[in-house]
Amino acid sequence: MRTDWAGGGRVFGYERARRALVAGAVLACVLETLTMSVLLRNWPVLHQLVPVLGLCAVASVAALHASSVARPHLLDTDALRLRRAARADVIVPLGHIASAEGELRAARRRADDELDLPVGFRTSVTLRLAEPVTHLTLLGRRREVDTVRFHADDAENAVETLVEAITQARTVPSTSPGRPA
């Protein structure tokens, strides 16, 4: 899918895999609110506070899902920007990507030089990098990674588009004037 707000780049969503998890979390919040309301019916102040807290819980779950919808992975002419809601944002230059392949994997303990951006405890695309990229953790620590795994709703299309973009990036003629004299 092409979008104007992505600067004409390609967008790879990952929110479809989270829909069932979000629906389950909203259902759990609603059931918890109803249960607590019944249990606290003899305490009027708490009984009135529970629906407000339940509404806040549902709103926070909806906001988490909205951040996944509003912040998809982006492929531009020179880089791939991988995001996971508001928690991760990594820019991988296309020249750094050695290979891209579709690989459905369950989340597991990762090595120090790997970055996993799972959705629903799984990833569907693996990037092997020729040169490492820097990833800033949530607390600001820098990590060099040479393998990146992420989830895309349409992994097959994402891999095809990535391979095509990598090939184009490698075949662009150099702007260098040549060897120095």
Percent helix, as a range, is: 25-40%
Proportion of residues in β-strands: 25-35%
Strand order of the largest sheet: 1-2-3-4
Let me know the largest β-sheet: 4 strands, antiparallel
Query: Gyration radius, to the nearest Å?
Result: 21 Å
Determine the number of helices (DSSP H or I, runs of at least 4 residues). 3
Query: What average pLDDT do the residues reach?
Result: 85
SSE arrangement, N to C:
EHHEEEEEEEH
Question: Helix/strand-derived class?
Answer: alpha+beta
State the separation between the terminal residues, measured CA to CA.
Answer: 46 Å
Coarse shape: elongated
Number of strands: 8
Low-confidence stretches: 1-6
What do you see in this structure?
The chain has 181 residues and is of the alpha+beta class. It is 36% helix and 31% strand. The chain has three helices and eight strands. It has helices at residues 19-39, 44-70, 155-171; strands at residues 10-12, 73-75, 79-84, 88-93, 97-106, 114-117, 122-136, 142-150. Strands 1-2-3-4 form a four-stranded antiparallel beta sheet, covered by helices on one side. The protein has a four-stranded mixed beta sheet with strand order 5-7-8-6, covered by helices on one side. Strand 3 and strand 4 form a beta hairpin. Helix 1 (19-39) packs antiparallel against helix 2 (44-70). The protein is elongated and about 75 Å long. The chain starts with 9 loop residues before the first strand and ends in a 10-residue tail after the last helix. Residues 1-6 have low confidence and may be disordered.
